[in-house]
Amino acid sequence: MLFPTKRIAEDCRDFIERRTALDGATVAARLAHLLVHPGGDEVQPRITNGQQSPVDGSGSVDLHIVLFPSTAFSFAKQFWQHSGLGISSRLAEHCLSILSSSDSVTQPPSPKCNRFGLKSSNRHYSVKSNLKTSPKQSAYIPAALAQQSQDELDSGHATYLEERYGRNLPLASALVAKRALRRRIAGVLVRDSADTAERAGDEDLQVGPSSRGANVSEDDVYLYPGGMAAIWSAHNLALSIRPQAKSVCFGFVLSCPVTEHVCSIVYSFPYTDTLKILEKWGPGCHFFGNGVDSDIDELETLLAEGAARDPSKPPVLALFTEFPSNPLLRSADLPRLRALADKYDFLIVVDETIGNLVNVQVLPYADIVVSSLTKIFSGDCNVMGGR
């Protein structure tokens, strides 16, 4: 399995070895480091704003590989799924484009990744200067492409569709784009309108107090490639700085009516990956699946009993909840949970994805908030915006 940084690869190796040991037969995983380099240019440093970047200025890529016996695949898959930290499909495509352009004598060509299933004669995949469409027509280009799904991409299909139509910034603008995102999420932009949008990421732009209901700045916002990566990182941060204790998963029950003939049965099950993260990393998890007031009563009893057994440390590590829940839109009593967190000294992590920062204000009650940029960028969830 491939990962963008050495630390994540080490975390995967440790997870495989720990979980296989619990299963009765420890598997030793190995790490390898692969540099995918287009050649011709000198390899550039990969440190960007104090953080390691898998892609450098010359387009070369650092990949960190975890090697393990096939018998341990299910455990490696669990890490990939729960943490959300594997390499992205776009990074994989970038690597394939480098490998396929290498010398065919020394490097066999890699398979092309045809994400859109289109043929090469499609006129919509010509360069932007050749596109003769009006602004009104351009809004319907995706539908037109879907109708021409029998066509194939041309030889330049490795360039992403959104780049063809100017919806992606160049890689060199990544830091500016991230700065603009952090400022908008933190709510610190003094003026943010269509006229000033292009300057939102300027380094010397004036910013003000947060409008999110708490004292936060752009430096308090961390961007991750996907939702589970943010939740996994929040949990592991808590494990690294707080006394060891079980966490609490509050809510996350999904009720789905399943009808067969004339019988209707309602199944309830937890939001899998968040619960599994809390169960598989650290001491374990207390699960209160409904997220209603009676669950808070039970939680309060559990906290009081834990504090009585050992007053020297908090009875739980952190409480994870959604606000509101998906899909029942059930909203936990955050003020009451906040009061319990202050009394018994544990963290509250709120997933505000369904409400998102435009509609709900949960920061005054939470220590950590996670939210989906994917949902904010597109309600159809047909883009990968990160977390």
TrEMBL record:
Keywords: Pyridoxal phosphate. Pfam families: Cys_Met_Meta_PP. The keyword Membrane does not apply. Its cofactor is pyridoxal 5'-phosphate. It comes from the Eukaryota. Belongs to the trans-sulfuration enzymes family. This is Cystathionine gamma-synthase. InterPro entries: Cys/Met-Metab_PyrdxlP-dep_enz, PyrdxlP-dep_Trfase, PyrdxlP-dep_Trfase_major, Trans-sulfuration_enzymes. The keyword Transport does not apply.
